Amino acid sequence: MRAEISTRFISLLTKNTLALILAGGRGSRLKHLTDWRAKPAVPFGGKFRIIDFPLSNCVNSGIRRIGVVTQYKAQSLIRHIQRGWSFLGGQLGEFVEVMPAQQRIQETWYQGTADAVFQNLDIVRSYNPQYVLILAGDHVYKMDYGRLLAHHVSNAADCTVGCVEMPREEASAFGVMAVDENLRIIEFQEKPQDPKPMPGKPDKALVSMGIYVFNAPFLYEQLIRDADDPRSEHDFGRNIIPHLIRRYRVFAHRLHDSCVNMVDGVPYWRDVGTVDAYWEANLDLVTVKPQLNLYDKEWPIWTYQEQLPPAKFVFDEEGRRGAAVDSMVSGGCVISGSTVRRSLLFSDVRVNSYCTIEDAVILPNVQIGRHAVLKKVIIDCRCVIPEGLQVGVDPDEDRKRFYVTEKGVTLITPEMLGQRVHQVR
C-alpha cells in the first residue's frame, strides 16, 4: 500500500512538472565536433545523440511536457527532435517543443542559462506548471526525475540541485556544493582548489549536475530579479543558485538516490565535454560490463534512427577476414575483409578490405578506404578516409593534419581531409 501511495504521489508531481532542457551551448571543448552542431546534437553510443539521454529520462519518469531551448547551430538538433520525438500525444497535453532564441523580451540573444529561461517566461507561464525542472542537454546518465521531485517536495524546498558524488581530487573542475547533514546546501564553490568534503565522507565532494527543480512561482520571481541585476551574468550556476543559498531553502539531491540501473551500486554520470572524455565514454560501452547499460528494457533510451539493414561482415580469407571483436557495430555497416577491435561504429559505416581499426569511435556515414590503419581515433560524420591512410601510428605526423589530444586521441573531420560536406550533421 505504501508503495502504491508513493508511486501515485510521484506520478502527480511529474504530471505537474514542465522540463526545460538547455541545449543552446556550443561545447567548445569538443573542438571540431561542434563546428557545425550544438553539443547536445553530437552523436553518442552508436545510434543516439547526447540530448536523447535527458529526453528519455523525462519520458521514462513520466514528465511529458518538455521544452528544448536552442541557440547555437541548432539545425541538426531541431531536425533530430522533429523526427524522433514527435510521438507524444499533443491532444493529451504532451509535447517536446523546440524553443529557439527569438529575442522575445529584449533585442539580445541568450546571455546565460538563466536568461535563456527568462526570455521564454511567457511560454513557460502559459503551461501553468507547479514545478519547473531545468536540465542540461549535454550530459550522459540515467535518472528518475520523479524521485528528485519527491525529495524536493518532502524537504519543502524552494530549489533542489541534482548532484553527483565525486572524488575530491576530481571535483575541482566542477561546481561544488557544501552541504550539512540534511543535504541542505550551505555554500557553493565554483571550481575550487580544495573542494569541501561531504559530511561523513572526507574523500568525496558533491558536484552540481546542472539539474535544478524550482517551485514555479519562485522561479519566476528569481528570474525577474536576476534580469534586473546589471552585475549578473544571468547564469543558474554562477548567479541564481549562489544568491538563493544564503536566503532560501536550497537542498542537494544525490544521483545515487535516483540513478536507474546502477552497475555495482555506482551511479553513472558523464560530462562528455572534452574530446578525451567523449572518446572514453563511447569506448566504455564496448567493454564486457559497461557502467552504462544500454540494454535495459525498463529504462530505454529513445531516439530517431533510420531504417537500415543489419550490419554485415564479408570475406573469410587469411589476411582478408571481415570481423569485429569487443566492438559495437550499428545498422547499415559493412565490414568488408577488415578487422575491427575495441571500437564503436555508428550507422552506415563502410570499412573496405585490408584495414585495421582499433580503439576507434566512427560516426555515421563514414567510408574507409582499403589498407587504412586507424588507431585511437574519432572520425566525424561523412568522412571519406583515403586508401592507405595511417593514423595513431606516428603522433607527430598526425598533428600536422589532424587534432590530437593530450591523451593521444586523434580527431578527424571532413574539413581536415580537404572534403566539403554540405549536409546538416
Automatic annotation (TrEMBL):
Nucleotidyl transferase domain: residues covered: 19-285
Domain Glucose-1-phosphate adenylyltransferase/Bifunctional protein GlmU-like C-terminal hexapeptide: 309-412
Keywords carried by this UniProt record: ATP-binding, Carbohydrate metabolism, Glycogen biosynthesis, Glycogen metabolism, Nucleotide-binding, Nucleotidyltransferase, Transferase
Record field: catalytic activity: alpha-D-glucose 1-phosphate + ATP + H(+) = ADP-alpha-D-glucose + diphosphate
Annotated site residues (Could play a key role in the communication between the regulatory and the substrate sites) in this chain: 71, 109
UniProt GO BP: glycogen biosynthetic process
Pathway: Glycan biosynthesis; glycogen biosynthesis
Gene3D superfamilies hit by this protein: Hexapeptide repeat proteins (2.160.10.10), Spore Coat Polysaccharide Biosynthesis Protein SpsA, Chain A (3.90.550.10)
Keyword Repressor: no
The keyword rRNA-binding is assigned to this record: no
GO molecular function: ATP binding; glucose-1-phosphate adenylyltransferase activity
Family: Belongs to the bacterial/plant glucose-1-phosphate adenylyltransferase family.
PANTHER family: GLUCOSE-1-PHOSPHATE ADENYLYLTRANSFERASE, GLUCOSE-1-PHOSPHATE ADENYLYLTRANSFERASE-RELATED
Protein name: Glucose-1-phosphate adenylyltransferase
Species per Swiss-Prot/TrEMBL record: Pelomicrobium methylotrophicum
